[in-house]
Amino acid sequence: MSKKALCIGINDYPGTQNDLSGCVNDANDWAAALAARGFAVTKLIDAQATKAAMVAAMSGLISGAAKGDTVIITYSGHGTWAPDKNGDEPDGRDEALCPWDIGSGKVLLDDEIAVIFANHVTGVRVLLISDSCHSGSVTRGDDSDLDPGMPRARFLPPSVWMKAEDVPAPKTARLPLISGLTRSGGDLLMAGCTDTQYSWDTSFKGRPNGAFTYYALKALATLPATASYADWFKKISPTFLPTNQLPQNPQIFGSRTARAWKVFA
Fold first, then answer.
1. What is the pLDDT of residues 169-185, one digit of tens each?
2. Which residue among 7, 78, 98, 120 is the active-site one?
3. Is 98 a catalytic residue?
4. Domain residue spans of the chain
5. Taking all residues of the chain, what is their mean pLDDT, rounded to a whole number?
6. Any residues with CB less than 8 A from the CB of 4 and at least 6 apart, and which?
């Protein structure tokens, strides 16, 4: 049995004027945490994280995994949406991740992610951790670590990267990637927010990070060795998120069996 991970972090979005600050730190932090737990880690940082490179790396890890293997993919960067062209979305749009080369119109759609995630053999454990995308408001949690003057939303409006004539009328946002995972049969998704919220790019003690990544790793450090993903999630929310300044409710999706998996086992 092997354990492999891909950690993607994109701060730099050429041609958009919508750069972020904490995503590369996120990727490095996830990589360090996973390596410490025995994972062979590959990273795609900024210009390395083109759409083609992301697809190739994700596809290679998932399709190459054997029964009993664990594959973890973390993504920190902008999320966005695009008009649905195959009629499979009730709201008329596909959610997407924003590769480094999105300035040239390249997005990684949820439909494409669904194909990638479906291409694994039975018995492979696949976890996606997404710290990206969409607004809300609540008043609990602990934001004492948060630096003043923060945070910033990790959402890239289609108008930033899409031709003006192609931008449809805005609709209510929903969480990217949920339709790209099966929610059963071995796939597990941990996401930074609900389908109507943003994930926030911010700074803690002078160091940029995504709010979800920062608190997820803070919670991870307190877990016993036998903890499950469900246990981990309960340590993240509502203990740390949401807060007044970070109005995001982390989410976990997957079968009961997947939620009971031992963390990073």
1. 554 443 445 444 443 33
2. 78
3. no
4. 3-259
5. 82
6. 39, 40, 41, 42, 61, 65, 69, 70, 71, 72
Q: Is 134 a catalytic residue?
A: no
Distance CA 81, CA 155 (A): 9
State whether residue 190 is helix, strand or coil.
strand
**Sequence-separated (6 or more) residues with CB below 8 Å from residue 10:** 20, 23, 24, 45, 46, 49, 76, 77, 78, 98, 99, 100
Sheet containing strand 207-210, edge to edge, reads 152-153, 200-204, 207-210
Which residue, among 77, 79, 58, has the nearest Cα to 5 in the 3D structure? 58
* pLDDT tens-digit map of 39-79: 999 999 999 999 999 999 999 999 999 999 999 999 999 88
| 3-259: CATH architecture | 3-Layer(aba) Sandwich (3.40)
Given the residues 98, 133, 134, 193, select the one marked as catalytic. Answer: 133
Dig out the tokens for 151 from the structure. Answer: 């945070």
